[in-house]
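## retry 2 of 3
previous attempt timed out at serialization; input unchanged, resubmitting
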Amino acid sequence: MAAGLPDLVDCARLAEDAAVLERVYELRDLPRLKDVLAQPEGVLHAKFAFSKAASGGAGAHVAVRAVPVLTCQRCLQGFAVAVQSASDVEFAGDELAAPSDAQREVFRAEGGRVSLRELAEEELLLALPIVPACSTPLTCGNAPQRLVDASPPEEAERRPFGALQDLLKKT
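## retry succeeded, writing output
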């Protein structure tokens, strides 16, 4: 993030002004991502377009994009995944103050102020896969050779219930 730009912002004032803010965060500076990343390199680009919500409170359209390197849960190797996500949020002081008929996701704003870094981090976390895995098992870093081989093994051609079919014919 550029020096001098505040992280905590007044949601109501920015919504009143229909402000649009853009920020860039280092992935290594996002504490909730540390356990998910295979490598801490990379950046998160975030854009916040503030507006009045239908309920009369403050809201924002949050858009993020990043290319984090995650750990594949099949081969335990790092792989890059392009992530792009956007959602609309409505700010509330606490869960009790959140409108029950909110058309947007509700994000907690302490004292009417919100951390842009935390908002962007939350959006990125929601966009990441629940179980990170390389694109296909055939290209996975430690795929067994028989999966990569084009010819199927003889065992796959065997019919495990073939004997059962023969028994049914006898009865």
